[in-house]
Structures are given as structure tokens and as C-alpha cells.
Design brief:
Order of helices and strands: EHEEHEH
Pfam families: Thiamine_BP (PF01910)
Helix content: 40-55%
Number of helices: 3
Radius of gyration: 16 Å
Family: Belongs to the UPF0045 family.
Oligomer: single chain
Organism: Streptomyces phaeoluteigriseus
InterPro entries: MTH1187/YkoF-like, Thiamine_BP, UPF0045_domain
Protein name: MTH1187 family thiamine-binding protein
Largest sheet: 4 strands, antiparallel
Length: 102
């Protein structure tokens, strides 16, 4: 499964990068495949592994913020591994010049 999630501290002002870094640190230290972009962090693994990482990432932000917002989207597809890479590769293959007839 792949979970894309965003943890946002509330009540701490506009500069939230330090808080978000706490959450991302938890994800990266988990050892699970992951990617972070400007809006979400995606993590791939089995249900219990991924949800544990999300829970700990939220807890890391919650430890320093009075309120936390969590947005989560999950792709639950048993038996699929390396989806973080393969899904992007599929799109890139369709974007390649030969796919456009160039």
C-alpha cells in the first residue's frame, strides 16, 4: 500500500517547516520507501507498518503543537511493491517523445 499524507501543525504561526521536518524525519527513519514533495509525504509498505509510521509522524508534530491537521490518501493494492517508483515510471513512459509520436 502507498499512503500519501500531510501533517500540519495548527496554532504555531505560518512558519511550519520545522514541525513538518519532525514528521518527515520519522518517515525517513522508518526504513520504508518514501518520498516527500511540497504537499505530501508518501510512504509504502504493509498496512500496519505504514499506519504506525503515520501515527508516529503525527505524534512528533503533536508533541510541539497545540493542534494537528492530518490529510491522508491511501492506495490499497495487495501484492504490489515498488509502487512509488513504478507508477511514476509508467507516467514518464507515456510522456516520452516516442509515445507522443515524435
Amino acid at each position: 500500500m502507498i499512503v500519501a499524507f500531510s501533517v500540519t501543525p495548527l496554532g504555531v504561526g505560518e512558519d511550519v517547516g520545522e514541525y513538518v521536518a519532525d514528521a518527515v524525519r520519522v518517515v525517513r527513519e522508518s526504513g520504508l520507501p518514501n518520498r516527500t514533495d511540497a504537499m505530501f509525504t508518501s510512504v509504502e509498505g504493509e498496512w500496519d507498518q505504514v499506519m504506525d509510521v503515520v501515527k508516529r509522524a503525527v505524534a512528533a508534530v503533536e508533541a510541539r503543537a497545540p493542534r494537528v491537521s492530518l490529510v491522508l490518501k491511501a492506495d490499497i493494492r495487495p501484492g504490489v511493491t515498488d509502487g512509488l517508483t513504478s507508477k511514476v515510471e509508467t507516467v514518464e513512459r507515456h510522456l516520452a517523445p516516442q509515445a507522443r509520436g515524435e
